[in-house]
Amino acid sequence: MRYFISFLVALGLLVLVIFLLLHDGGKSSQPQLTTQNLVDYSNSSNTEAIMTIDGPINAVSSHQQVRITVSRDNVTFEQLTGYSGDVANMQNFANTQDAYAAFLKSLAHAGFTDGNNDPKASDERGYCPLGDRYIFEFNENGQDLERYWATSCGSPKTYLGAFTLTVSLFTAQVPNYSTLTQNISF
Fold first, then answer.
1. Residue 186 — pLDDT band, cuts 50, 70, 90?
2. Residue 80 to residue 60: CA distance in whole angstroms
3. Residue 75: inside a domain, yes or no?
């Protein structure tokens, strides 16, 4: 009887260890931002919200991306070419702490912090190959606090916020956005 109980205890421990290994101990690989603490970053000069629009999969000489980076002091628009992100055009615009706070608050209401943190879904490359991929990031000191993506094809995606509203909020931060992107084939 003693051997049987020992066997059951050992079997239970084995099942527990396997469960913890497969479920990563319940821990996320990225720090989890919340709606509340996103707004708290408006005072920091070391944070930035970034949206990258990655165009259709095509020849390296034709591939284009747009990246908008919003921080407390600046808004940067970049037109990138190729797959290595060579900068073809860059425009910087001044920003203020109040404007950044309003932007972060709007992103929070749009669900910017809502997403799927499953590491298996973190790589957007190759999805929606004839459409666009949208990568949404929030960084502090160059480290990702959040990184989600969506596509113009709908799904799959890891970004669970209000997609159209989020894109509009980012593009509205760039004066003359439509003029700057008129020659980009998205």
1. confident
2. 11
3. yes
Query: Residue 12 falls within a domain, yes or no?
Result: no
C-alpha 14 chain-centroid distance: 37
Longest dimension (CA), the chain: 81
Place of tokens 């109980």: 5
State the Cα–Cα distance between residues 95 and 30, nearest whole angstrom.
28
- The 8-class DSSP code of residue 31 comes to -
Task: Read off the pLDDT of residues 75-107 as tens digits, 9 standing for 90 and up.
Answer: 999 999 999 989 999 999 999 999 999 999 999
N- to C-terminal Cα distance for the chain? Answer: 71
**Parent domain of 172:** 29-180
Say if 42 falls within a structural domain: yes
Sign of CA dihedral 28, 30, 31, 34: negative
Contact of 71 with 101, CB cutoff 8 Å: no
Residue type, 162: A
CA distance linking residue 1 with residue 57, whole number of Å: 65
Tokens read off for 13:
């421990």
Which residues fall within 8 angstroms of residue 137, CB to CB, at 6 or more apart? 49, 50, 51, 52, 144, 146, 147
Q: Which CATH number covers residue 59?
A: 3.30.1560
Does residue 133 belong to any structural domain of this protein?
A: yes
